[in-house]
Design brief:
With about 375 residues, the chain is α/β, with parallel strands linked by helices. The protein has helices spanning about 30-45, 55-60, 80-95, 105-110, 135-140, 150-160, 190-195, 215-230, 240-255, 270-275, 290-300, 310-315, 330-340, 345-360, 365-380; strands at about 15-20, 45-50, 70, 95-100, 120-125, 145-150, 170, 205, 235-240, 260-265, 280, 305, 325. The two termini are about 30 Å apart.
Length: about 375
């Protein structure tokens, strides 16, 4: 982002905006998306404050930006003290737009509107699970201006599970910082050196160690990959603890993968991690919007393999900028990985097309323009 000229606002109105999220880990996709939206909107001339649980690392992330940081406890959905404090902040800053990114932030910002605060309230939805019974009241509240789904597939899930009218749920694709994930700027060798791998070793990467992220299916597929490409190695990124990391490696050993598999804890240096990989894989079979790792890898011109779940098909056009496979299909997963490792020309062509697709429709700039448009329309309609 450094050195990039700020684009002019699409609208002359300068808005006062809060981005609110209870999570704070910089290794979390929702936190990165929230921060990137805040910075992009700030660059476009708006006054932006980020509200999270107290975290000095996150505060430091915003130190050299024009984005303000305001910590709140955000303990749980019935945290009336945080709601009162947020209502006070909203009135003090004359906030016009509040965009919440998870359930606790949603509940607190909604409660604050009963305590004197008035703003356009936008609710982010980034997972494809149906909205739960006890959460529907939050989404259906007339005080919610719009629900913002990160892909059309999630928009349909929200509509069907909440009964909201179509105009209340909009799609704004999650974005990638195409400067941060620029293949010309990122060192592709540093992470390989950390793993003890030479530049010639075919490396496959995956991020996210949850059951529905498909890491077990990936390990099963990698047994076949190693038969076809014996020098191939796999790195699984995002273990929550050393205990989980050892469990992942033990599972690999139980499949006969005694070599060639690496596992790491969650990391914040994702550009370097993904740049080190020849192929990046998302074998998720549930819960997926548009997988952040796939967007980021595509921005780095990497060949990607993704399951056709959630909104992945809205980003990855099969055979044009990546490969799509059915979920939980180990044979198809293995075949797709082997195909990309064996055909360097295909991998290169898909990777180049992938970056072009991300820049055109899935960048933080495009997302910022879309959010700015929605916010301005809402503020005008509500007379804020």
């Amino acid at each position: 982002m450094r050195g990039r000229r700020a684009p002019p606002p699409l609208f002359p109105m300068s808005l006062r905006i809060a981005q609110v999220l209870e999570k704070t880990s910089l290794a979390t996709g929702s936190v990165r998306q929230m921060l990137e939206a805040a910075r992009e909107l700030s660059r476009r001339g708006h006054q932006v404050v980020v509200v999270t649980r107290p975290d000095p690392r996150l505060a430091a992330e915003l130190t050299n930006t024009a984005v303000h940081y305001h910590p709140l406890p955000l303990r749980h959905e019935l945290d009336w003290l945080s709601a009162r404090a947020f209502a006070h902040l909203a009135q003090e800053m004359h906030l016009q737009v509040v965009h919440v990114h998870k359930g606790i932030a949603h509940a607190v910002a909604l409660a604050a509107t009963f305590m004197g605060a008035r703003y356009a309230l936008f609710v982010n939805r980034g997972v494809s699970f149906p909205v739960g019974f006890f959460s529907r009241w939050k989404y259906r509240s007339p005080r919610v201006t719009k629900v913002v789904a990160v892909c059309d597939a999630i928009r349909q899930v929200v509509l069907s599970s909440t009964g909201l009218p179509a105009h209340k749920v909009v799609t704004v694709y999650a974005g990638v910082d195409t400067d941060r994930f620029d293949p010309q700027r990122v060192d592709p060798f540093r992470f390989r050196q950390e793993l003890g791998l030479s530049p010639e070793v075919p490396l496959v990467g995956h991020v996210g160690i949850r059951d529905w992220k498909g890491w077990r299916e990936l390990l099963a597929a990698f047994v076949e990959v190693r038969r076809k490409v014996p020098t191939a190695e796999l790195v699984l990124v995002g273990c929550s603890s050393e205990t989980q990391k050892e469990a992942v490696l033990q599972y690999a050993r139980s499949l006969g993968l005694t070599r060639g598999v690496h596992a790491t804890l969650a990391r914040t240096d994702m550009p370097e991690v993904l740049a080190a990989c020849q192929v990046v894989v998302d074998p998720s079979w549930a819960g997926t919007g548009i997988t952040g790792t796939i967007r980021e890898a595509m921005a780095l011109e990497k060949a990607v393999v993704a399951t056709a779940v959630g909104g992945n098909g809205e980003l990855v056009k099969d055979g044009e900028c990546g490969l799509l496979i059915p979920p939980r299909d180990v044979a198809s997963l293995a075949a797709a990985i082997v195909r990309l490792l064996a055909d360097r020309e295909l991998a290169l062509r898909l990777g180049q097309a992938a970056r072009s697709r991300v820049v055109a429709g899935f960048s933080t700039t495009v997302r910022g323009q879309r959010l700015e448009s929605l916010y301005t329309e809402a503020v005008t309609q509500l007379g804020l």
